[in-house]
Amino acid sequence: MDSPMCLVENADGELHVVPGAIKYLMGLNQQVVVVAVVGLYRTGKSYLMNKLAGKRQGFALGATIQSKTKGIWMWCVPHPEKRDHTLVLLDTEGLGDVEKGDSKNDAWIFSLAILLSSTLVYNSRGTIDNQAVENLQYVSELTERIKVNSSSAASSSHDDEEGGDAQFVQFFPNFVWTIRDFTLLLEIDGRNVTEDEYLEHSLELRKGGGKKNLMYNLPRECIRNYFPSRKCFVFPTPTTPANMPHLDSMDEADLCGSFRKVADTFCCFIFQESRTKTVKGGHKVTGRMLGHLVKTYVETIAKGSVPCLENAVLAMAQIENQAAVDEGQAVYQRGMEEVKALFPVAMGQISAHHLRSDHQATQAFMKRSFKDENGDFLKALAVAIAKHYADLLIQNEDASEKKCVALLEKLSVPMAQKIKEGIYATPGGYELYCSHHDNMVAQYRAEPDKGVRAEEILEQFLRDKSLEKNSILQADKKLTENEKKIHEEQEKRALAEQAVKMEAEKQHQLEKLIQEKERSHQEGICQLETKMVQEAKEKQHELERALDSKLREQEKLMAKGFTEKEAAMKEEIQSLREKEEAKREEKEEQSRNFRAIAQGVMESVSNGLGHYFNYKKAREQRKALVFKEQVRFNLKSGAVGNIPDKEGMTLKQDKTATPKLETGAVGNSKDTTLPKVNTGTTDKSPGSEV
């Protein structure tokens, strides 16, 4: 992105997403680190954002008393240190703008900055005094502006009350306070302190009750409780007051050296310590997912409702998981294009491509999907892949049949010509016919790349030719009746052997499908298990992070003697520990759920392949029907015709002696109409209607 663009527009006190900015985010597939800056208007927030973007100009600085930034502006740049990550910088409208006069609008912009960021930078000027802290009044209103759990969940309100601030700690960003134009010494009671110690000192609570102390402590408690990670930077004045209006046009070398040093340290901290944006459940967010979040939150606010983290994540999960299914399908289909161009191919070849493409498709799905807790979307992908594979198996079989039929027709032309010329209608003609016949079969077998139906098509062809062969046998006057019987038995054995080869071919294909299914199932289980373990770790990390922050906060309060806070703090810590224990107990439930998902995926694959098995069943029905019609025709017609010999005499021969093989048919029966078979699909792919 060359320059910033408006992400959320603030017009007449109403917030709206900017379609162009959302479209840009939707095309961003990298994970994002989101840094948002908030603060009073005219405090130099935009300068910090430009500095993080590595640009002198970008976000409007302005040199007048009027606020330049309206709404929320976004600038996406490659992350300087995290590979394959995008740094998303959000510059927000200045809080407390007198021209706006609507603190409620400010509160929503502040809430959006928290919801969308992984690091929140609060920018102020001068010192951290009571006024500076009170300007952060929006922090104390966050529980009214943001909900963690869905109100539709039976226990959500109870959880929110029981979890207290700990609920927010799990999901809120790191907090960085930047103080501009700082002119004081970093000393407390005559002792030099660090910037972070200065911040913690400014956030210390007052002991005792009373309304005054309660009001003083409220914003400080909220900051301490909501933001587990806090950091402070104090910036000296960058240049002389006369030059401040021209800050955006000044060279870096002309700025104060101490200012540049702090600015560089600030940038290094943001680049190194700002974590990848996550949502509830610990799922890492991509630019595309951030676009969904922005749209969901802003639309919720526009309706007058309170943004809910859980609802936003669930809505985003539905969209992302369906997109993950579509992406997995596309990966599989692209992977199978190469082998499809080679049809017909052997079962092993199409099987190898299927297993590889299936693995890649599942990987692509796992990478993009999240919160597919019942495995519904994974099952949908399995069904889609199985159906597509079934269609490809059918297309491959049809291509094999077409090639084999064409090859046999071509190879049988010379013999058909010899029959017309009466070459075989002489004494000894049967032996010559058998020699030519065996040579033709050998040529057929020698032809490579006939595909998966080579033996089945040959079996059909030989069975059709057996009547022609028997007619020539019976007409051969050189052979005795006993010799003819011997040849008949030999022909029966040959046909039986070919039938065995055909069945072996079918059995091999079936075994290959079963092996594929099992191997694909095992690989899918492995990927699913890895995904579930990773998601469980992310959830556990969320809880541990929140628990650790609460324990550190408790330690600080106890050290300062705030014993009255101990009971409330212990209750929150106990709540987090109970949740942590509950997560551990969930592992057994997850194991059962995992097995159910795996079984569901297997059933989905079987259902998808049912399309292919229905097709094969219909084809067998067709073969039986055509063969039955052929036998009936032969019996009705006497099953004999005439073959001319060299002297013009005739020999009786089966009328279907030189049948032309039709694709998908046995013999030359004219009636090849078949019953429709329900394949479970509505597409027009081969075999969808047989």
Distance between the termini: 54 Å
Q: How many distinct beta strands?
A: 14
Helix content class: 55-70%
Instruction: Give the biggest beta sheet.
Output: 8 strands, mixed
Strand arrangement across the biggest beta sheet: 2-1-4-5-3-6-7-10
The number of helical segments is: 18
On the 0 to 100 scale, the average pLDDT is 79
Bin the strand percentage: 5-15%
Radius of gyration: 39 Å
InterPro entries: G_GB1_RHD3_dom (IPR030386), GBP_C (IPR037684), Guanylate-bd/ATL_C (IPR003191), Guanylate-bd_C_sf (IPR036543), Guanylate-bd_N (IPR015894), P-loop_NTPase (IPR027417)
GO biological process, one term: innate immune response
Organism: Oncorhynchus tshawytscha (Chinook salmon)
Family: Belongs to the TRAFAC class dynamin-like GTPase superfamily. GB1/RHD3 GTPase family.
